[in-house]
Amino acid sequence: MDNADKKRLLREMIFYRRFEERTFEAYMERKIGGFLHLYSGQEAVATGVLEMAVTGQGKDNDYVITGYRDHIHAIKTGASPSEVMAELYGKENGCCKGRGGSMHIFDASQNFMGGYALVGQPFPLAAGLAMGCKHKGTDQIAICFLGDGANNQGTFHETMNMAKIWNLPVLFVCENNGYAIGTHINRSTAQPDQYKRVDTAYCMESSQHDGMDIDNVMAAAKEAIDYVRSGKGPYFLELMTYRFRGHSMSDSKGYRTREEEKEWEKRDPIKLYSDKLLKAKVLTEADIKAMEKEIDDEIENVIIKFAEEGPEPKVEDLNKYVLDDNPDPRWIGPLQNN
Ligand SMILES: Cc1ncc(C[n+]2csc(CCOP(=O)(O)OP(=O)(O)O)c2C)c(N)n1
Ligand SMILES: [Mg+2]
């Protein structure tokens, strides 16, 4: 990775942090409604893993799927940040025409397959996407991001077993941030080391790594992705991380101490990476300041502008996009006859 790539990666992570923090403000201004789960603190995970995957190539991308903390995964896969912001605003120019909102970001043109509100929902879908890759005979893979709490869902166990038995080209990335809403992992999960669960129970290749240092994430992700793409079967990558904000917007964080937060903040992925690049003289403090200014300008003058100026969906279009506008007659025939 050359210096230009290193600067780009730092810029991406700062952009993701600022994008998320700006959605926080828009939410407080009541411009964004519904649920909003922010990714601040976990940037090195999505950025590092997807940097090692095929992204930004449209339909040639690897398939990416995740839960409700999904804005950054969508953007790094290739979705337009302006369209993601407009989606959060519920506007017609959003990537799901304003019908999905924060938890249901989707961009099929980039193989970003959602954005799901139900915990555990993406697992079997990821296995299905991987099976599709296998049948099509491409060397694409499916990448499924999941939370530590989601691993106690039944779909987790069903999918791990099937993925292994069928040797599916799927990478599971567990973003272990230690909490499921306000419940610490030690209170909910008998084996808190997630990678051990799939190793012992499903004989799946797995490993656990620090998820705050992006270099570390990229090295681990490269190994895992190479393994999956070479046809060896599924891989489970556990990355230890922390969310700096609450679970969603209504969270007073009474379940954790300020001391614990401060400890993790010392390992802020953006700070770790910028310190590293400063030390290696890849860039200067002034370069970072300029980068931040440029990012803030872009978010305000391009992205927020696009969302604010976007039209509201029309009430008469309420049913639009609910069903396929050109459905297969074999499916609507029986319905019409009833
Ligand atoms: C099937 C289902 N059960 C319960 C919930 C409520 N719920 C939303 S998030 C969450 C915790 C998930 O935690 P984790 O998987 O660790 O993800 P994180 O929020 O930490 O990213 C729960 C229980 C839900 N959305 N879906
Ligand atoms: Mg969690």
Question: Which terms would index this structure?
Answer:
338 residues, Rossmann fold, five-stranded parallel beta sheet, 7 strands, 47% helix, globular, binds thiamine diphosphate, binds magnesium ion
Summarize the structure in short.
The protein is α/β, with parallel strands linked by helices and 338 residues long.
Explain how this protein is built.
The structure is a single chain. The chain is 47% helix and 9% strand. With 338 residues, the protein is of the alpha/beta class. It has a single domain, classed as Rossmann fold. Helix 1 packs antiparallel against helix 11. It is globular. The mean pLDDT is 95.
Report the count of strand segments: 7
Oligomerization: single chain
> What would CATH call the class?
Alpha Beta
Helix content: 40-55%
CATH architecture: 3-Layer(aba) Sandwich
Task: Please report which band the strand proportion falls in: under 5%, 5-15%, 15-25%, 25-35%, 35-45% or over 45%.
Answer: 5-15%
- Order of helix and strand elements from N to C terminus: HHEHHHEHEEEHHEHEHHHH
What is the distance, rounded to the nearest whole angstrom, between the alpha carbons of the first and last residues?
A: 61 Å
Shape: globular
* Arithmetic mean pLDDT: 95
Gyration radius (Cα, Å) is 20 Å
Task: Kindly identify the CATH topology.
Answer: Rossmann fold
Q: Which strand order do you get reading across the main beta sheet?
A: 1-2-3-7-6
So how many helices? 13
Work out the count of structural domains.
1
